UniProtKB/TrEMBL annotation:
Positions where FMN phosphoryl threonine occurs in the chain: 177
Listed cofactors: FMN
Task of the protein: Part of a membrane-bound complex that couples electron transfer with translocation of ions across the membrane.
Homology family: Belongs to the RnfG family.
Keyword Secreted included in the entry's annotation: no
Superkingdom as given in the UniProt entry: Bacteria
One annotated GO biological process: electron transport chain
EC number(s) on file: 7.-.-.-
Subunit organization: The complex is composed of six subunits: RnfA, RnfB, RnfC, RnfD, RnfE and RnfG.
GO terms for MF: electron transfer activity; FMN binding
Main subcellular localisation: membrane
Name of the protein in its database record: Ion-translocating oxidoreductase complex subunit G
Signal peptide residues on this chain, from the entry's feature table: none
């Protein structure tokens, strides 16, 4: 074989090796894709089930969701709202929300609101509050976060949706008032948001993005 053909042969072998590697990777991805998607779906469902009782829905909460741009209400530029349905009827909303007035940074929440306006469950999904003080908002640290269950607008009255130090109904923590105050405000805004815009959210097609122009009465632009 002439010396001139050696580089061409080497290049062809390299290209063939690259093609084989690409085909192997594509085959591996195809074989594992469904399992990865299923695992992600299970993880999302398990997170939602923490705040939403299983007897409240029979639909796919992950698939039946919309994106909502309502930062004044939910504290983030875009939030996911999952719609729970039971036998075809709307039963609850599960809202992602963020309290941006936490002591050490944003406090991320999941808030489930029943169709009758009552809280089904609240959980903190991420925060940076001070260990031993503000972290009592975690369900694993105390039962404080569970006390929202069953509450609604008017129960307690609007003026009592605050920590006791501010004249409200909800306990603060020893040495930490800012953290629970932020969570109480965020939960109340979720209830107000669901009351005002729930019908619009329930009627929207799955996967759409809704832009909400309204704001809470107590909203102050930063």
């Amino acid at each position: 074989m002439s010396a001139g053909r050696e580089p061409l042969r080497a290049a062809a072998q390299l290209a063939l090796a690259g093609l084989i590697a690409a085909l192997l990777l594509a085959g591996t991805w195809a074989l594992t894709r469904d399992r990865i998607v299923a695992a992600e779906h299970r993880a999302q469902m398990q997170a939602l089930e923490i705040v939403l009782p299983p007897d409240r829905y029979d639909n796919d909460l992950v698939a039946d969701a919309v994106q909502v741009q309502a930062a004044a209400w939910l504290g983030r530029e875009t939030a996911t709202v999952h719609r729970a349905r039971l036998r075809g009827e709307a039963s609850a909303l599960v809202l992602e929300a963020t309290a941006n007035d936490g002591y050490a940074g944003p406090i991320h929440l999941l808030v489930a609101v029943a169709d009758d306006g009552r809280v089904l469950g609240v959980r903190v999904t991420a925060h940076q509050e001070t260990p031993g003080l503000g972290d009592d908002i975690e369900a694993g640290r105390s039962d404080w976060i569970t006390r929202f269950a069953g509450r609604a607008l008017g129960d307690p009255p609007a003026a009592d949706w605050a920590v006791r130090r501010d004249g409200g109904r909800f306990d603060q923590f020893a040495g930490a008032t800012v953290t629970p105050r932020a969570v109480v405000r965020a939960v109340k805004r979720c209830l107000e948001f669901a009351a005002r815009h729930g019908d619009e959210i329930r009627a929207a097609a799955p996967g759409v993005t809704l832009r909400i122009e309204s704001a809470p009465d107590d909203h102050r632009p930063r």
